[in-house]
Amino acid sequence: MAVRDEYLAFARGQAAGVSPTYEALAGAVAAHDQLEGLLADLPTGKQQPNLLFGVARHLDGPVTDPAAFVAWALDQWPVVRAELLVRSTQTNEAGRCATLLPVLSGLPGPLALLEVGASAGLCLYPDRYRYDYGQGTVGDGDGPVLGCAWDRDDPPPTRRPEVVWRAGLDLHPLDVTDPDDLHWLECLVWPEQEQRHERLRQAAAVVAADPPLLVAGDLVDDLAALAAQAPVGATLVVLHTAVLGYVDPVRRRQFADLVRTLPGHWVANEHPSLLEGVVPGAPDATRPPREGPEAFLTALDGIPVGWSGPHGQFCA
């Protein structure tokens, strides 16, 4: 997809009605030939709107004024380009734990969680957060309350899993105790989403108090070695949310083939188009009739088990 088309699609299909700031910025980029050309010269994975706008905020660029933003990006392009090349979109949305809990709470415990594409590991703490599915709060403690609309016929979970080991695998793991890493995570949350900002801060405090094992590595080359470190007697659960979009189709299938050979269970939470060739029937699965963000598909051991909001907004 051409850069102009990608930014227009982002403005109309993702930012519209959600982030006026990013809708306006994406439109301005799409309309500016010079900036579009500079982005087109970057590797494909470095052209995406979320990455550009996150880098701009990290560098204190003027994101509230589209004209000023374009002028700033052109003037500061060497610095912007360098940041784009070394950073990646590592949005770490703890709210997704609300859509993982229905699966995790039904597995035999205690659990050893291994998250692929873990970023800073915020989704490795489903046992520390609290949940509100509209029928009372599940869990206690100081963690954030994760609200999630329950649109399923079966009842929502009433307990949290016991987790005795948590590890994450990421090409570039982030550390929430590092101010620069935490600031980068904050910059990846869209400007108008203050509730998500607060949730991030609360979840980061939980993680900082008891950091997980985070390993720099590849989801195929290094997964088996990390999985082998899980404690004996615990149920290994390899999980991932919104990760496969950053992996090419061949590598996705290699990952799926590998994870199926590991003991324990595999929990996937991704856009259904990214599970083609990974979860049988995923692209053609019946989606819930719902307005708003397009649903993610949740699968257990390669079998679809439900739908969810991409940031944990709902379970269906």
Key terms:
7-stranded mixed sheet, globular, 3-stranded mixed sheet, 11 helices, 2 domains, 316 residues, single chain, alpha/beta, Rossmann fold
Compose a concise summary of this entry.
By secondary structure, the protein is an alpha/beta fold. It is built from 11 helices and 12 strands.
SSE arrangement:
Layout: H1 3-15, H2 20-30, H3 33-40, H4 49-58, H5 66-75, H6 77-86, H7 97-104, E1 111-116, E2 130-132, E3 137-138, E4 145-147, E5 149-150, E6 163-170, H8 179-187, H9 194-209, E7 213-216, H10 223-227, E8 235-241, H11 249-259, E9 265-270, E10 296-300, E11 303-308, E12 314-315
Parallel strand pairs: 1-6, 1-8, 2-4, 5-12, 6-7, 8-9
Antiparallel strand pairs: 2-3, 9-10, 10-11
Helix pairs in contact: 1-2, 2-5
What do you see in this structure?
This protein has 316 residues and is an alpha/beta fold. The chain has two domains: 3-86, no CATH class; 94-315, Rossmann fold. Helix content is 35%, strand content 17%. It contains eleven helices and twelve strands. The mean pLDDT is 92.
CATH class of the largest domain: Alpha Beta
Count of separate DSSP helical elements: 11
The average pLDDT value, as a whole number, equals: 92
What's the domain count?
2
Major pleated sheet: 7 strands, mixed
- Poorly predicted regions: none
Q: How are the strands ordered across the major sheet?
A: 7-6-1-8-9-10-11
Query: What's the CATH topology name of the largest domain?
Result: Rossmann fold
DSSP E strands, number: 12
CATH architecture of the largest domain: 3-Layer(aba) Sandwich
Distance between the termini: 31 Å
β-strand amount: 15-25%
